[in-house]
Amino acid sequence: MRRALLTLGGTAAGLAALLSFKTHSLAAADAATSPPGVSTGTSQPMASGTEAGSASPAASGKASPATSRASASSPMSAQTVTGAVASTPYGPMQVQLTLAGTKITKVTVLQQTSDGAESSQIDADAIPKLTSEALTAQSAQIDAVSGATYTSSGYIKSLQSALDKAGA
């Protein structure tokens, strides 16, 4: 009888703890506020037989039309374009692109979120990953960095703005 009461009491306590647990879903909140075409870090279906690493033209061995044009023509002068400031809950995000023809050769972050030490630490981890993806993809169609949803969203918005200004 005593074992039954202890088992029943433990089960009730565990169930109460489980039911009181609340999850924090940034992805769902950010997806509701993101414009269409902006990745929020959620996985998206891929064509069958496609691996995540082969989604970009560079990884698949196929040059994009923009890459082909830039390499087929004579050396072009570098063009620098500054993207719009994207507001995030943790501060502004702004990038600047350097383009050789239509090829992105460099991405510089002019403004980044600055809401304390944690925000700076997240940016220090996320921004190099976002920059690397942007240079590989040669577009703003890049994945968000897990744990840096707002930083990623601001970066992608500013990057797209700069590409729109450049006409790329």
Descriptive notes:
This protein is an alpha+beta fold. The chain has a domain of 105 residues: Sufe protein. Chain: A. 46% of the residues lie in helices and 16% in strands. The protein contains six helices and four strands; from the N terminus they run ααααββββαα. Strands 1, 2, 3 and 4 form a four-stranded antiparallel beta sheet that branches. Strand 2 and strand 3 form a beta hairpin. Helix 5 crosses helix 6. About 30% of the residues have low confidence.
Give the gist of this structure.
The protein has 6 helices and 4 strands, in the order ααααββββαα. By secondary structure, it is an alpha+beta fold.
User: In one word, what is the shape?
Assistant: elongated
Mean pLDDT: 73
Q: How many runs of DSSP E, i.e. beta strands? A: 4
CATH architecture of the domain at 64-168: Alpha-Beta Complex
Oligomer: single chain
Beta-strand percentage range: 15-25%
What is the structural class?
alpha+beta
SSE map:
Blueprint (H helix, E strand, L loop, with lengths): L1 H19 L5 H8 L23 H4 L4 H8 L5 E5 L3 E3 L2 E10 L2 E9 L5 H21 L11 H18 L2
Antiparallel strand pairs: 1-3, 2-3, 3-4
Helix pairs in contact: 5-6
